[in-house]
Amino acid sequence: MVKTRKRGREPKASASTTEATDLEYTNAAENAQNDGFIAENNVASTAAAENDVDNHPPKRRGRGRQRKSGLGHTEGTEPHVASSPERRPYQNGGVVLEPPSQPVANWESAAARVVPAMDAVVKVFCVHTEPNYSLPWQRKRQYSSSSSGFIIGGKRVLTNAHSVEHYTQVKLKKRGSDTKYLATVLAIGTECDIAMLTVEDDEFWEGVSPVDFGDLPALQDAVTVVGYPIGGDTISVTSGVVSRIEILSYVHGSTELLGLQIDAAINSGNSGGPAFNDKGKCVGIAFQSLKHEDAENIGYVIPTPVIMHFIQDYEKNGAYTGFPVLGIEWQKMENPDLRLAMGMKSDQKGVLIRRIEPTAPESHLLKPSDIILSFDGVKVANDGTVPFRHGERIGFSYLVSQKYTGDTASVKVHRDSKILSYDIKLATHKKLIPAHTSGKPPSYYIIAGFVFTAVTVPYLRSEYGKDYEFDAPVKLLDKHLHAMSQSTDEQLVVVSQVLVADINIGYEEIVNTQVLAFNGKPVKNLKNLANMVDSCKDKYLRFDLEYQQIVVLQTKAAKAATLDILATHCISSAMSDDLKS
Predict the structure, then answer these.
(1) Residues recognised as catalytic
(2) What is the pLDDT of residues 549-558, one digit of tens each?
(3) Element housing 187 (H / E)
(4) Is 263 helix (H, G, I), strand (E, B) or coil?
(5) What is the Cα–Cα distance from 152 to 134, expressed in whole angstroms?
(6) Which pLDDT tens digit goes with each residue over 289-312?
(7) DSSP secondary-structure letter at 503?
(8) CA–CA dist 77, 217 (Å, integer)
(9) Which of 234, 394, 509, 580 is the most buried (most CB within 10 A)?
(10) What angle do CA 432, 438, 443 make, to 5 degrees?
């Protein structure tokens, strides 16, 4: 879990902790669960080491052999020069036995045998100031965290997006250095959980070579994860093999992209660290792991195709533009009766389009009940997979994710027993309830004590905790999971809470209720609502809420009472800055 540095005395560490079986996302001081993965951000807080010292039980001698200490000699005896074969590291993090040629304490010769690529791995220190989505006019208390990163070409550093989320200051420290260098965040790819940094101080780049990228590894290929995880301050190396390659759920970005599953240990603080193959080439970035009572040593790595997409996107556009999606919902066509009913021939395969996003560019070309036969010339199977290397198949969304925003793809569909081909322009996905806010502060508007805001996943998490998918109101969850935006600027506006005052007597219990209309006009988004209220000349302000609730206020009294309510609650403005423009 993420440990953060706070003022005051550190609490004592518990003897043991039980990992929850659901998904915990450890990006901030609070966890957000969702499906069993842990986004491994930060830690390396000195609290772990301090607790270990403070709570260490008295040593006692047991039966059997004498216990060896961590320094390599037996407790209660003097250290001696090893007479047995000594262990030295080799490139993928294992060890090789060789006869001793000199005392083990020769640190210079040991340092000379370190893998060169490890010198490009850096420790990332970040100070975060997260918005308070429940009280959107203020921010939460700042906290500190640490994670890993590595140097690539062009004087740039890669790490995880969740490692620098809501950053106010980022510093980098090289291996073996005692200096922390101020870093600048160039781009944050929330969907792919990658961030790009740079350092203006030229001294930082001296004496270090950038990491080279390798090809996508095969199953059972050896990988070595390097980083600065919990348990110590120095660099850590863990080894394993590639266990699985498939489309994964990226916890931080709430997206599905290509990912690697490995059996090397990935712990808190490993986030952003590189995964090397046996040739010293980087084949991925550690970013999350699975914590479950029935699973052990399951870690996940962002593979090089996703990394290169992020880098080339930034180089091509000067900013991160995201991963495009097709903007449809589809179902499998594995049932033979379904295929016959849709007029498909025995040699035809594909997936059935159920719904199309109204805001998607292809909404005027494709139709519900169309059957996608191929994407960019690659045939799609009845289960929605396409060929992927020798003897492997993968979801056809992989083909879409390889494209860039604004690219064109050729899609062949079956419609009314005819084969039609369309060239579709790909774009990013616009959800009615966004999964993230891209670092922007939340929007709000206050009138007569009524706090209006737009619903986002961070807002639901702030209101209902990490189990918001179980505890949030059913109507909000239904819109979160199934509703589609009818326009690119549509938002789900709710009354977040009512700041109690004389003018809103009787309305105090309205919480997280959607606003449907104002004075008979539909509410399109929060800015639209704020503009209608501010320009209202009617005698009354009438808000139509869901469940047929109605709120009515006198216009002049409501606007006059707003100033007193803002002063009472020390709120500087009745609306967020983004609504003022």
Answers:
(1) 162, 193, 271
(2) 999 999 999 9
(3) strand 184-189
(4) coil
(5) 39
(6) 888 777 777 899 999 999 999 999
(7) G
(8) 47
(9) 394
(10) 65
